[in-house]
Write a structure and sequence with these properties.
Largest sheet of chain B: 5 strands, mixed
Largest sheet of chain A: 7 strands, mixed
Number of strands of chain B: 9
Structural class of chain B: mainly beta
Distance between the termini of chain A: 36 Å
Number of helices of chain A: 0
Oligomer: heterodimer
Helix content of chain A: under 10%
Distance between the termini of chain B: 37 Å
Order of helices and strands of chain A: EEEEEEEEEEE
Strand order of the largest sheet of chain B: 1-9-8-3-4
Strand content of chain A: over 45%
Shape of chain B: globular
Radius of gyration of chain B: 13 Å
Radius of gyration of chain A: 14 Å
Number of strands of chain A: 11
């Protein structure tokens, strides 16, 4: 199993450009997440999804959009990129346990995005 | 989610036990204590979690005080590869907020040769 795979690993965007960060998982996990991590800080949740067709906002959703058309894929869309979106983006997934999202989240290796 | 407090950094000699403390004085009865680590800006890695009993797995041990207001992650024989930022997180297993792992700044553990 590859686990959680993110592409691209690095990207430089100009202000106002748009891009999609790709995330796919091969563990058949229902739950998927997007986090961002600014330098020297912890991770903040952008969006999450509890299954195909269902998404919800996290702590810092402004400037981003997501979709979940399949169990495997959870792309993150940046519209009109701004310097404040310079960050490392992590995708994660987990398998539900009981009524909740499960005990262990598996993270991808991250996408390092710079907006200039 | 309850807030956690961790020291910003710690050193540990290679081969010795690393004891990483975490305070979570406002933890609720249905919240678990989770530990993750992040090695050199890679994606975070799950280590262990517990509710009120001590837990042990192949990576570490978790000691939770009886009043649940603090806990300690123990790496029994630290190696250079254990150098990482360690995050202590409290989270309910279900319900509102359970989907979010709230990462603070964590403890930067440096294992010294």
């Amino acid at each position: 199993n590859a686990g959680v795979t993110q592409t691209p690993k690095f990207r430089i965007l100009k202000i106002g450009q748009s891009m999609t960060l790709q995330c796919t998982q091969d563990m058949n996990h229902n739950y998927m997440y997007w986090y961002r991590q600014d330098p020297g800080m912890g991770l903040k949740l952008i969006y999450y999804s509890v299954g195909a067709g269902i998404t919800d906002k996290g702590e810092v959703p402004n400037g981003y959009n997501v979709s979940r058309s399949t169990t495997e894929d959870f792309p993150l869309r940046l519209e009109l990129a701004a310097p404040s979106q310079t960050s490392v983006y992590f995708c994660a997934s987990s398998s539900p346990k009981g009524q909740g999202p499960g005990t262990e989240a598996f993270f991808g290796q991250g996408t390092r995005l710079t907006v200039v | 989610d309850a807030k956690t407090t961790q020291p910003p950094s710690m050193d540990c000699a290679e081969g010795r036990a690393a004891n990483l403390p975490c305070n979570h004085s406002t933890i609720s009865g249905n919240e678990y204590v989770y530990w993750y680590r992040q090695i050199h800006s890679q994606g975070p890695q799950y280590i262990i979690h517990g509710l009120k009993n001590n837990e042990t797995n192949e990576m570490a041990s978790l000691i939770i005080t009886e009043d649940r207001k603090s806990s300690t992650l123990i790496l029994p024989h630290a190696t250079l590869r254990d150098t990482a930022v360690y995050y202590c997180i409290v989270r309910a297993d279900w319900g509102a907020g359970s989907y979010q792992l709230t990462f603070g700044k964590g403890t930067k553990l440096s294992v010294i040769p």
